Amino acid sequence: MDLRDRTAVVTGASSGIGTETVRALASRGARVVATARREDRLEALADQVPGVVPVAADVTDPAGRARISAQAGQVDVLVNNAGVGYFGLVEQMTAEDVERLLEVNVLAAIALTKEVLPGMLERGRGAIVNVSSVAAFVALPPLTVYSATKFALQGFSEGLRREVAGRGVSVHTVNPGLTRSEFVVASQGAASPLVQAGFNAAGLPPWTVANAVVRALEAERRPGYAEVAVPRLAGFARLAALPAVSRAIDLASIPGRYAVAALGLQREAAPLGDARPGEGKRA
Amino acid sequence: MDLASRTVVVTGASEGIGRATALEVAAAGARVVAAARSAERLDELVVASKGDIVPVPVDLTTAEGREHLLEVADEPAALVNVAGAARLGAVTEVSDDDVRDLFALNVLALIELTRGVLPGMLDRGSGHVVNAGSVLGYVAGPPLAVYSATKAAVQGFTDGLRREVLGRGVDVTLVTPGAVQGTAVLDRAGGAADGSPVDVLFDVTGVGPEAVAVAIREVLEHPGWLTARARSVPRVVGAARLGTVPVVGRLVDEGTRLLRERAGRLA
Questions:
Q1: How many domains does chain A have?
Q2: How many domains does chain B have?
Q3: What average pLDDT score do residues A70-87 get?
């Protein structure tokens, strides 16, 4: 798809991958509707980058989603990037945490997709990019429930792309590994051992993921969709679905767990509370 | 695990796989705590079984319902999460509320029930959680894209949880049925009629719910060392895992496209 003069909606645009994706799409000449809850950040982004329309909205709220589509008008590209992360054992989570993860990472993305899809199908043109994760290929503690939400987003993307194939709408996923964003900070708090250990800084710079989003959109060869792992090599995590590989990961998870416990990385999981979608979040 | 006089919680016990599982596990001597919404159908289940079945009519999408179930079960030896719903239809035809309801039952209730029994099981150093996934969790497809997403979530959760508790005495197994006969559980969005290609496909190629129930009982009785990971019913549908390999995924894409063009719509 040639992105010039197209309208793109990017969720979770106030930081990390979202912000970089807004920049990348705008630099290709797209009109970008940037959404997140933090208005000040969106305003600052719009001041810096021409062609950006800031819309402060909560994607988990139907009224927020309605506002986004009203402001956007005809949407050619939807980038579902908003999401929250959570490091912690299943037994240590609260019910609200589980619900919040599902709400932001899955339900909001599906609802927003449903909002723009009829128009795309009618015009026979459009693209949806779901920013998923390597955790959608392989589920590992202490990211179990986060992985479950990314598995869901991946499954949804796959089913949807098969549903709309040949009707002018493509559905891509971009699956980053650990990214240098607010993911860890937002889910753990700045004082967490993970953050202190520099775990955050070890990740990919968010612009590499934004580039993958643009690459997915601009690719015009068959099969008509992209499922890009960032870095590419991380795509081999797909093999985790195969029984022998899965068992090897099972075995490795035992020493892995002790290592995580020894480093004190998992006990710090604080309740998500009001963690914001779009506050940086890939693992 | 020898099932005799152990407590096993089975959700979704009023019909299909859940009902068959409750009967099968009760026949093996377990005390089955059977959960479903319909008190009437649970009573029928109790009458149909010669074993020990405790009916618990609850709505598992509510926290109170889940608490009540876990109270009655009182530290069960095993939890079998079967309860689930599906909406047949294009993504645009499934309402936002339906999407929410599907995730509330298929994913959230499953995770919360598991979290409810897990601390006790870890304390005792024994227990088994069996989650019903679906082959569609391996290979997602229309007209069940949203359902596929919920089952993928179940799969991811089960994989992660297994790796979390491995070596701590608690087994975690994913059972992935392929097509199962009798699609009465598949609600239809957009008013599609019965007798769709999907119905025909399920009835012709599907296994009976009893086959899945037998697999679940076997898994409970013989989890095996590190083998209690995933069990497909019939086993051959486990090959659907290959769907994650890009080139196979593309073939599935082409296949669904051809099928859709031939059949018009699948639902």
A1: 1
A2: 1
A3: 93
